[in-house]
Amino acid sequence: MDAVTFVGMYREHAINYVLLGALFGSSMVMLLSFRYGSLARDLTDFVSGILAAIATALLVTVHDPVWSLWLCAGGNFVGSWSVAKKVWSNPASEPALAWRIGTVACVLSLISLPRWSATSLIQPITFTLINGGLTLLLFVRSRMLAQLSRNEIAP
Fold first, then answer.
1. Which residue among 11, 35, 79, 100 is least crowded, i.e. fewest CB within 10 A of its CB?
2. How far apart are CA 84 and CA 39, in angstroms?
3. pTM of the full predicted structure?
4. Cα–Cα distances in Å, from 154 out to 31, 133, 141, 149, 150?
5. How many CB atoms sit inside 10 A of residue 99's CB?
6. Of 27, 28, 11, 9, nearest to 123 (Cα)?
7. Is 78 in contact with 44 (CB distance < 8 Å)?
8. pLDDT digit string, tens, across residues 6-46
């Protein structure tokens, strides 16, 4: 999905460095998943894949990247649900510092946009909301589990 977003934003001359980092990071994750990943898929993977396929088809046929960018944003939100479920069940499985740094980077990318338009804002806002939401969930859920742990230990 990041590749489709990259092509769409490239066509609109709206590429930012957070997207380049995300494209590099997701490419590394994809390559590593071939070696270390699981073949298990769930509904979020299926829906994200469908949205990415539709976004790619629109980008190739219609040549209007806005709809492709919106579909990729939707796919990213759907895809982040599996991470949110993982954070809820086991917050220690995700590095809190990495999510905080990611959130700050996304906010800075919004602030540093040279021009604000629908196409230049879709991706940074999507990443900011996802990273910020997961950072908040990670913080809240860790605190909840710590509080439950303290209550169980106390007489």
1. 35
2. 19
3. 0.77
4. 47, 31, 20, 9, 6
5. 22
6. 9
7. yes
8. 777 787 777 777 777 777 877 887 788 777 767 777 787 78
